[in-house]
Structures are given as C-alpha cells and as structure tokens.
Design brief:
alpha/beta, binds iron/sulfur cluster, six-stranded parallel β-sheet, about 20% strand, Transcription Regulator spoIIAA, binds FE3-S4 cluster, about 450 residues, binds S-adenosyl-L-homocysteine, about 35% helix, Rossmann fold
C-alpha cells in the first residue's frame, strides 16, 4: 500500500504586507473546514486572520442554506458589513462564499451591493485570482462552477492548524436528493478524494501535533476514493480508508460525519469493532420515525431497517453511542406520524441529537408538496421531541459518572488551572491539570454531568 512521505507540506512564504482577513462561518463542519482552507489559500498572498471585521481588509462570509433562518442571517450580516465599510472609508472587500452563494448568487449581488464577490464552495482555490480581478474592477464577480476535484487538487498542501483536533474533508456533495434538502444543489454531485491525497493531508496534520481527525463529507460513508496506486483494488470505501489512516503513528483518534443509514456497510461496521482509534460514537440521522414520512422524504429506508442497522452496529460495538438528526413537520406529517418519531427515539435511545422544524427550501421537491404543516404545530412538536431528546442526553451523560474516560486535552478552561478536552462521546470535559497536558490524551474520572458537558478529575496512572 502506497505510503506517502511528507514532501509536499512546505510552509507558505511570508509575505511583506500583511492584510487583515476576517472569516465568519455558518452551517456545518464542512464549512468550518472550507473556512480554514480559504485562510490557507490567502496566506501566501499576504492575508492573516483577525477576530473582528472592524478594520479588516477582506471579510468572507461562509454561508449555509440548509434552513430559511440560516440563509436569512447572511443578509442581516451584510447590512452590518455595509455600515462597517462606510465607517472605514470603503476599502474593505466583502466576499460571500458557501451554500447561499451557490444557491442565490445573483440575488445576493442584486440585494446587497456591498458584496464584491460571490464564490461557490467549489471555487475557493481561485480566491487570490478572483480578488485580484475585483480589485482591478473588471472580470466576473460570480463564480459558482462545480469542479470539486480541481478544488482539492489546487488547494495548498500546507495547513495551519489550531489545536490537537482537526477536520479533514474526504468527500463532498450528495446524490441522495432527500426531498427537503438543498445540499445536492449547493454542493453538487458526490465526489471522493483519492486515498493518497487524504493520507498526505492527515500526515501533515499529525506532524503539526494533531491527534484526532474527523473525516468529513455530506455523505461521508458513501466515500469511494481512488485506491493507492499499487493496490489490487481500484477504489476504497470508508472502512478501508479508516483502517489505513489508523496506522499513522501519532494519529490516535478518528471520527467521521455525517453518515447516511443506507451507506453503513458491513466493512465499516466491522471497523467499529476492530479499530480502537475509531471513537465509539456515531452520528446517524433518522429524520423521522414514520415510514410514510421517510418515504416522502426519499430517505430510501424504513424505520425497521434503521432499527436493524442499529442492532447490528451495537452488536459489533456495544459501548458505541448514537446521535441523530430529526425534522418535525415535514409536509403531510400527522400527529400519528409524529408519534412514531417519539416512539423511535424512545426505542433506540440517543446520546445527543439535533432536531429542526421543517423549513421549505426553494427548488426542493418538499416545498411543492401539499399538506405543509402549520408553524405553531411544528413548534409544539419540536418542543415535545426536544424534551425527550434532552432527557435522553442528560441520562446518557449521567451514566458516565464514576467511569474513567480518555480525554484529548484541547486547551485551558475558564477557572484557574482548568483544562478542557473532549471525551470519546464528544462532550466537552472540564478538569484541573497543568497546561503542559494540552495536546495529550489523559484519563479522567467523571464526577459530574450536565446536559452538554462533563466534569472530572485526572485519574492516576
Ligand atoms: N447528509 C446528512 C444531513 C445534512 S443536513 C444526512 O443525510 O443526514 C443536516 C441536517 O439538517 C439534516 O440531517 C436534517 O435533519 C436537517 N435539514 C436539512 N434540510 C432541512 C430542512 N429543509 N428543514 C429542516 N431541517 C433540515
Ligand atoms: Fe441532504 Fe439527504 Fe443528501 Fe443528507 S443525504 S445531504 S439530507 S439530500
Ligand atoms: Fe449548510 Fe451547506 Fe453545510 S447548506 S449545512 S453549509 S453543506
């Protein structure tokens, strides 16, 4: 198998005039990854990141289109940017990137003249070139082509990392077309990066002190990337990729997100059982408990199939905890359908979950369906669902009290000598210890549990 050495991780040259770059990120982890990469793309041409848009030379809003609320945030933020730009003499450049850029580029340009450039998620490698064009006041101000391969091939190899845990996008786009979802339109078709490219990025991260990598994709377990050159197979799935990455010395923890129930194959389940580097935590969106609604959503599986899958995964890895996503008030959802979601949650039990009111998105089939549910009904259902999910989350965290967990120390906490890290199940974990433990994996005996976080003491030995 083709192990790659780290010849390609050169540091970008240090430019003379440092310009200030402010990036604001909305939406999912893939946007977080993309924002980091945009900073990497812009570093060689003289930009370094600042914490505030006030006084910045360049502001990038990396946006999310998943629900109406998320998309509308962009326009109110652009109002603020217009005021800042006026206050600071009009030299600040404003770029809208991400999924709103992809979905409503033209509309952004029309509604918000403050915007200099609109850039879809597949065009970030072109940032320096596009900024140069805009500065000379000619050329396209809208770039929303889809060439995911080019994006990854042309992005700089060097990455600036912040802390011992990092994201690494291995797959992008979606071919599933759930009827509520904009992602297939904003991120394009499924594309998987070649294994070698991922391995060299992972090695580069590890050489900078990263100990935990979360592999990202809109459908990360649909990953099918080109295998290393001399391998007998042409493509590898996610399971094979994880086995391979687990061999990188110093890379102690792996996670992946977001997976689709239909793509959880036996190999991937086996990897959960065999690879201690793979954390015992899995985000597996169910969305709804009613088969009628699952069908209308085009999820491609029944509730019974989900239940069987969970049983199989739990058999392979009994200590694995699950999290999920739910939508309430999809068109046509009756009280009875909704009760099926509550029953499903009761039956399966989740360590943590995200739940949302259905938001009709322009251009998706769901938006045109009859039986759109009243906002008040959605709110009421969401409250009931969240009440149940919160109870499960608290109970799960409480069940960890008295246990000793491995914690990757990410930084200092608020109190004196307080450290902060992540447990295997992702909860933020607070304990007392010396700052030289940052970047290490320590054993922490859990003494208290809240809804979202844990507290404990360093265990001896
Ligand atoms: N690829 C992932 C989901 C990505 S979007 C999957 O297949 O599960 C993250 C979550 O946002 C989804 O799981 C869904 O619960 C929610 N979501 C997506 N579109 C939505 C919409 N139109 N309204 C409300 N919630 C939505
Ligand atoms: Fe959206 Fe469905 Fe694709 Fe997930 S699988 S990104 S919910 S279309
Ligand atoms: Fe949002 Fe785009 Fe991610 S719509 S959830 S930022 S893929």
């Amino acid at each position: 198998m083709g192990h790659q050495t780290l010849v390609d991780a050169g540091k970008p040259g240090k430019p003379a005039n440092t310009k200030k770059l402010f990036i604001k990120t909305y939406g999912c982890q893939m946007n977080v990854y993309d924002s980091e990469r945009m900073a990497d793309v812009l570093a060689p041409v003289g930009y370094s990141c600042v914490d505030s848009p006030d006084g910045a030379d360049l502001v990038v809003l990396n946006t999310c289109h998943i629900r109406e609320k998320a998309a509308e945030k962009v326009y109110s933020e652009l109002g603020r940017m217009r005021k800042l730009k006026e206050k600071n003499g009009g030299t600040m450049k404003v770029i809208v990137a991400g999924c709103v850029a992809q979905a409503e580029g033209e509309e952004i340009m029309r509604r918000a003249p403050v915007v200099d450039l609109v850039l879809g998620p597949q065009s970030y490698h072109k940032l320096p070139e596009m900024i140069a064009k805009v500065s000379r006041e000619f050329g396209e101000r809208l770039e929303t082509d889809f060439d995911t391969q080019e994006k990854f091939d042309l992005m700089p190899k060097a990455r600036t990392v912040d802390g011992p845990a990092a994201f690494l996008t291995i797959q992008e786009g979606c071919d599933k077309f759930c009827t509520f979802c904009v992602v297939p339109y904003t991120r394009g078709a499924e594309f998987s990066r070649p294994v070698d490219q991922i391995v060299s990025e992972a090695r580069a991260l590890v050489s900078q002190g990263v100990r935990e990598i979360t592999l990202l994709g809109q459908n990360v377990n649909a990953y099918r990337g080109a295998a290393p050159k001399l391998d007998s197979e042409k493509h590898w799935g996610l399971g094979q990729l994880i086995r391979h990455l687990s061999k990188i010395g110093g890379l102690d923890r792996l996670r992946y997100t977001t997976s689709h129930p239909r793509d959880m194959d036996d190999e991937l389940i086996a990897v959960h059982a065999d690879e201690p580097t793979l954390m015992p935590y899995l985000h597996l969106p169910l969305q709804a408990g009613s088969d009628r609604i699952l069908k209308a959503m085009n999820r491609g599986h029944t509730y019974a199939a989900f239940k069987d899958l969970v049983a199989k995964i739990r058999k392979a890895k009994p200590e694995l905890a699950l999290s999920s996503d739910f939508i309430v008030g999809f068109p046509g959802e009756s009280e009875l359908d909704f009760k099926r979601t509550l029953e499903a949650v009761e039956e399966i039990g989740f360590a943590s979950s995200f739940s949302f009111k259905y938001s009709a998105r322009p251009g998706t089939p769901g938006a045109a369906l009859p039986g759109q549910v009243d906002e008040a009904v959605k709110s009421e259902r969401l409250a009931r669902l969240q009440d149940l999910l919160t109870r499960q989350q608290k109970a799960f965290n409480q069940s960890l009290v008295g246990k000793t967990l491995s914690v990757l120390v990410e930084g200092t906490g608020r109190g004196e000598n307080e450290l902060f890290g992540r447990a295997p199940y992702l909860q933020g974990t607070h304990f007392t210890g010396s700052a030289d433990l940052i970047g290490q994996i320590v054993r922490v005996e859990i003494t208290d549990a809240g809804q979202n976080s844990l507290r404990g003491v360093l265990a001896n030995g």
